[in-house]
Amino acid sequence: MKPIRRTIRPSRAADLDALIDIGRRSWLSAFAQTAPFDLIVWWVREDRTNVFYRECWPAMMVLEEDGALIGLVQPKDDEINGLWVHPAHQGTGAGKILLRAGEDIIRSAGHQAVWLTCSGFNEKALHFYRGRGYVETRHERGRHVCGVEVVDIRLERRLAERRMDGG
After folding, report:
1. In angstroms, what CA-CA distances link 108 with 135, 148, 167?
2. Dihedral (CA of 66, 11, 74, 123) sign
3. What is the full DSSP assignment across 62-93?
4. In whole angstroms, what is the distance from residue 54 CA to residue 46 CA?
5. Which of the 8 DSSP states describes residue 7?
6. What is the pLDDT of residue 13?
7. Is residue 93 in some structural domain?
8. What's the pLDDT at 35?
9. What CATH number does residue 15 fall under?
């Protein structure tokens, strides 16, 4: 069996279609069974992934597996502003690799802590982040523009010095 080769690198303009596809598929995977239907309809109608990624792709890092994009992370200042893994590659360690890459960029910028916001509808992601030492520090309830009540959860984690052995 051939070993899997994974590489983290900055995104490129040529990646945009693949990034949008990953974003759409992973968003639906995260929310299709948990979010209210009105929120999903709004997201599809507004094509939020397409709009957002066309603006923000230069700030993203991508994970390639044997030359194909399988995930992305967007560090922004001291925040993980987005992390998505194609559903076919979830549970394979891809999310851990992307999170670590984002944290390394944030650490290299001189920050000692990292934070992110996760939807209360995304239980799978909340479990993932908690399992990596992220602690909930705030819950914000509000009404989404589509009329649905939402809860956004802020999670934070202190960044330790990165050891040379990868720990």
Report:
1. 22, 38, 15
2. negative
3. EEEETTEEEEEEEEETTEEEEEEE-GGGTTTT
4. 14
5. E
6. 95
7. yes
8. 94
9. 3.40.630.30
Q: How many residues does the chain have?
A: 167
Torsion angle of alpha carbons 30, 34, 36, 42, nearest 10°?
Answer: 0
Amino acid code (one letter) for 123: E
In a domain, 1, yes or no: no
Supply the range of the domain harboring residue 11.
6-158
Two tokens, residue 113: 């802590």
DSSP state, residue 56: H
**Number of domains into which the chain is organized:** 1
CB 8 within 8 A of CB 98: yes
The DSSP letter of residue 144 is -
Measuring CA to CA, which residue among 122, 108, 121, 114 is closest to residue 161? Answer: 108
Is 165 among the domain residues?
Answer: no
Nearest to 102 by CA among 112, 87, 114, 117: 114
Answer positive or negative: Cα dihedral of 96, 98, 101, 102: negative
**Residue 38 lies inside a defined structural domain of this protein:** yes
Whether the model pTM is above 0.85 = yes
Q: Which amino acid is at 28?
A: L
Q: What is the mean pLDDT of each run of 10 residues along the chain (167 residues)?
A: 87 96 95 93 92 93 96 97 96 96 97 97 96 96 94 95 51
